[in-house]
Each structure stands twice: as structure tokens, then as C-alpha cells.
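[RESIDUES AND BACKBONE]
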Amino acid sequence: MIVSEQALEASNIPIGVLGVDLIDGNNEVKHIRDAVKVIGSSFTRLLDKDKIQNPPRRCNDTAKWDSGDLVYDTLLETSLVGETGHVSFNERGDRLNPLYDIKSIDHRRIPVSVGQYGHRDKDQEFFMMDENLTWPGNTRSKPKGEQISRNLTIVTLDEKPFVQVIPMPKDGVCRPVAPAEHAFPCRNQDRVQCCIGYCMEMLAKIAEDVQFNVTVHLSKDRKYGSFENHNGSKRKFWNGMMGELMRGEANLIVAPLTINPERANDIDFTKPFKYQGLNILVKKNQRESSLASFLQPFEDTLWILVGLSVHVVALVLYLLDRFSPFGRFKLAKSEDTEEDALNLSSAMWFSWGVLLNSGIGEGTPRSFSARVLGMVWAGFAMIIVASYTANLAAFLVLDRPAALISGIDDPRLRNPNDQFKYATVKDSAVEMYFKRQVELSTMYRNMDKQKTYHTAEEAIEDIRSGDLHAFIWDSPRLEHEAARFCDLTTAGDLFGRSGLGIGLPKNSPWTHEVSMAVLNMHESGFMEQLDNKFILVDSESSCPESNSAPATLGLTNMAGVFMMVAGGIVAGVMLIFIEIAYKRHRGLKEKELELARNAADRWRGNIEKRKKLRETWQYLHALRMDEKGDQAEDK
């Protein structure tokens, strides 16, 4: 280990550490003398060739000194041997070829000189080292050097959108598919495919910055890795990508590998390249019927009460107007007739008209008491209609299908039953999370009894088919799937927050460099670009409910309204036939009554005629008798 000059002065520095110290670095007098020699030599050569202007007297006027660049270039060209060694400069003005004293920390923790390194003149380099050194570990034996290979083997697995496996073209050359810009050949058992995605773009950038070559292959058992018993023995081993890394079959794990305590005990992790949490993927709970969507703003009980109120108010209006002494008024055109009070049919028409905000041309209450009730009913109707309109907008325009569960604290997860099925991927960090959390032990035991999923794709397919009710997994993947498929959604808030990192063997010489490359990518905004390109690319989904603008109502939402109108038309047609039949029946009765009335009138007329004839006959008979009596008297 070679440290800086300042580190050599630390009190807790280990024994055997090497460091370099500039010879005479603390001797200011020698450095000042060398500096004066450099300036004198430069101006001597400069004044022999050119004439220079007087320098400015104030520092703010240095930009106006035309000879400044000439003096600077001459100083850089100066080369001499001074009291501190060979003095020369590079293009930036830094000193070249300084003379260093090599120091080592002995058993007393004091830095002692063990050699020198530098240049005695411009071209002659020398190195001198004491063979009898104290090396780290307080030993005299020289440690063996380690040769680091720059051909690294990378293990990963298929996990969209971080890693996506695509078929190898026929010409055997992997080409990226948009939005990816890099594609790596990756061996999958006995065949070679191409790998693209978030992690492959990150791997290409790291390989370019750290300068190493990569060979990518997919995990043999398609697992992230868990610590389990092997072949029924009592000894436990890591499987999946973790096992391949620890067995030396890979140098790096570049995949969405969650950083957790179990893994960190056996491998090294870089700084997290992405922070994420766990979420729950469920199928959307679509509404069973849309024909009665316009009835959803109110509960069935409220609809019944509103309908009952209409008829009760109509009945009370009729009774108030009928029995009130002010229910009748003289008509303006006639003093002999009176306008009838509000009848029951007109009261019903008024009550419905106020509720539905339709014009009331006739049939309004006449009495003051009935009109007070009418005003109260109008206020009630205004509130009901406004509430219905607001809730109708919420239900139809901004309607979002509710998720099947509310989140990780949902009772169906905390108190599981055989009807509700949920799961995660076997041998994954999510499964380890449920093992580690005591309050989630019941959930873990229930998941362990159900169907085992080895990949996220299997679980997502079962979610879509309805065989699985909830899938617990990393939030970036679930949000990606929810944006792709309109029948899926995420439920509740994130939980179990963690970071995703690159895995390396313990004490790997690449850990620091790869970790620094990850930090540099965060600072430069490269990771944010990858998020926008792969994770957030489907955030503006084509699903109607994902848009912030209100959805357009269609026939599906308002079919019930049109059916109600059609029902009204059918009811009107049926009623008109009933009215016609009733009118005919009533007309026949009126005709019979009229015939009977006419017959009675004719009978009465006949009786009157007979009566008149009888009276006439009696009168004539009386006249004849009178005439006969007169004739008898005359004789």
C-alpha cells in the first residue's frame, strides 16, 4: 500500500505502509533559491533576444501586459539543476521529474527512509530501494504481487426492463433495439442470445470508464440467489447468481440485485445504482355492470326515498290546496265561475316538474300554505340535483377501477385464506425480506404453501389469467407491467425500500473502481437518462385511466339512460292503447246511456201524446155530449 505524504504523519497508520515524500520538501530556503535561479535564467535569455515592456504595477492590470505570455513561455522552457534536484516544468507549469524520498513505517510507527526515486537530470531516471524492509503485517518477507485480469465474466438474468433477452440474428451480430444503444452476446446454457436493457447500458458505460472487457452469460438456474441446504445436506450454499459469483464462475453480477444483509455478508456491493421498494401487482377490479352507471351516484335507499318523497309532497300539496280556504280564486273573466283547486294529477305534475327542473305552465299551488311547501320542495330538489351532478362526474368522468386490495396491510394479506392467493419469486430478495420480518411471518408461511414461481413472468401471467390474486415484487418492474397492460395496476404504497447494486466477490480489486463509476454516472445524470429511457418510457400509458384529462363518456357509460328513454317511449305507446281502449269502453257506455235516455224520452213523449190524445178525445166527447144535449133541448 502506497499512501500520500499527509497519510505518513497519521498516528494510527499500519506498520509496513510505504509512502513518498518530496526531498527537501520542507526546506523553503532551497526552494526559494531554485525559484530565483529559474527567474534569473529565464530573464537573462529573454533580454538577450527580445525587448520586453515594463510589468504593470498593479495586479489588476496584468491583462494589459503584452509581454506576459512571452515571459510565461520562457519560464516553462527553463531547465536547470538546483539545490532541490532537477528543475523543469510541463505545459501546465507543474514541476517535472522531482526527487522523492521513499519512506516506510517501522515497528515504532515512525516513517524511515528506505529509498529514493526521481531524475538527476532531464533524461536520467533512477530508483534506489532498501531490500531489508518491514512489510505490512510486520514481516520481512516481500508479498507476492497479484496480476489482475481485465477480462471479466458477467452473470445476469432476464428481468425486464433491466435485462431483456432477444434472439441472436442469423449473422451472429447482436444489434440493439430501441431505446437500447448497446447489445451484448449472452450465453444461455448451450445457446447464445443477445442481452439489452437498463443494466446492459450501465455495464457498457462502466466497462468504458474502468477499462475492462466483458463476457456475459445468464444464470444457469434463473435465480437471484438464496442461502439454502444443498442436496439435503446440513451445509448451506448460495444458489443462483450469488452461487456462481462465490464459486468464481463470474466476476460481477450486473442485474437488479437487491442489497440486503444476508448477501452483504458474503459478497461486496457497489454503491446503489437505483433505489426502489416493493409493491403489489393486482388485476383491476372492473365494475360488473355499466348499464346502470348513471344510478351509481346515489345508493338504492336514497333513490327509493327520493321517489317516495315526490309522491308524498304531491299528496300533501293536493290536501293543503284543497282544504285551504284560499285554495280557490275567482276568475278574472267571469264573476259566476271559480277556478278549481289543485287536483292530485296537477300536484303530481308540479312535484316531478320541480325535481327535474322542467317548466311548470299550469297546475301550481294556489294557497299560501301549499306554496310554502312548494318553495321548500324546490330547495330540496336543488340540493339533490347538485349532489347528483357532482357525484355523476366523479363516477363517470373521473372513474378509476378500484384495486382488489389496499396494500401490504390489507386484511386479506395479513389474515390469509385459501381463496385469496398471493406470491413472490422463489429464492429472491423479496422472499428473504418476508423471512426476516417477524410481523410478516404469517404471510411468508402462506406463500410457501402455495404455488412456487421461479420468475416474475410466470407470476404476472397468472395475475392476468386470474389464477393469482396478488404478486409482490420490485416496484420498477411492476410499474412497467402496469403501464404495458391496462388490466393490471399496483396497489397501496411502497414498502421494504432498498437499493439495487452490482455484486462482486469479497475484497475484489474492482469494487472501488466500479463503485466510483456508478457514483460518477449518478452525478453526470446518466442514471436519470436510463430511468427515462427504460423505466419511465411507458409512464404515459395508452390506458384511458392513466391520462390526467377526463375520459370521454361513451355508450357503455350512458346506455342505461337511453334504455330509460326507450322504456318511456314504450310505456307511452302502451298507455295510449290503454287510453284508446278505455275511451272506447267509456264511449260505448255513454252511447248505451244516450240510447236509453233517448228511448226514455221517446217513451215519455208517447205517453204525453197519448195523454194529450186522451184529453183531446175526452174534450171532443164532452163537446159532442154538449151538442146532443142542446139539440134535445131545442126539440
The CA atoms of residues 152 and 463 lie 38 Å apart. The two ends are 190 Å apart (CA to CA).
